[in-house]
Amino acid sequence: MKRSELVIRQLLDVLMRRLNVKEIDEKKESLLMGSMRINLNYYPICPNPELTVGVGRHSDVSTLTVLLQDDIGGLYVKGVHDTWVHVPPIRGSLVINIGDALQIMSNGRYKSVEHRVIANGSSNRVSVPIFVNPRPSEVIGPLPELLEGGEEPLYKQVLYSDYVKHFFRKAHDGKNTVEFAKI
């Protein structure tokens, strides 16, 4: 296992223990982090940033998203009372977002993060997100360990590739994609 995968695995171990999942075996590992995708995002200077959006409001379909920002900034997360909070870049740090897949598998105990990117009027911006995903062939739904104690499922079982297709078929619309998996 590569060092980056090991770090992600350790983070998932901590998150799973809080859900009473005792062990991440091969099957759970595939479900939680069976595939990874990296993007290189380039946002050019925009002369009128108030007239455009870098990336519309959305939550990621991943289990986790690990983001490296440059020094420019532009990432905003939705806070309380529908306010947008700037996530200032900190040199050498990573931003870790919970994605929709983990919200579904945790039966809503973990919440995916609604976020957006605002265009910049003075500098080009670069960001590098790594999306940690289930394999496309995996079926995601509340983990059995959560339902063993009688907890009612909030989400149905859904083929992960169908969930991702649903996300890309429509415009960014906040956290509405997760409604696709709700019971």
TrEMBL record:
Pfam families: 2OG-FeII_Oxy
Keywords from the UniProt entry: Iron, Metal-binding
Gene3D superfamilies: B-lactam Antibiotic, Isopenicillin N Synthase, Chain (2.60.120.330)
Keyword presence, Coiled coil: no
Signal peptide positions (record): none
Limits of the Fe2OG dioxygenase domain: 27-134
Domain of life the protein comes from: Eukaryota
PANTHER family hit by this protein: OXOGLUTARATE/IRON-DEPENDENT DIOXYGENASE
This protein's name: Fe2OG dioxygenase domain-containing protein
Organism: Vitis vinifera
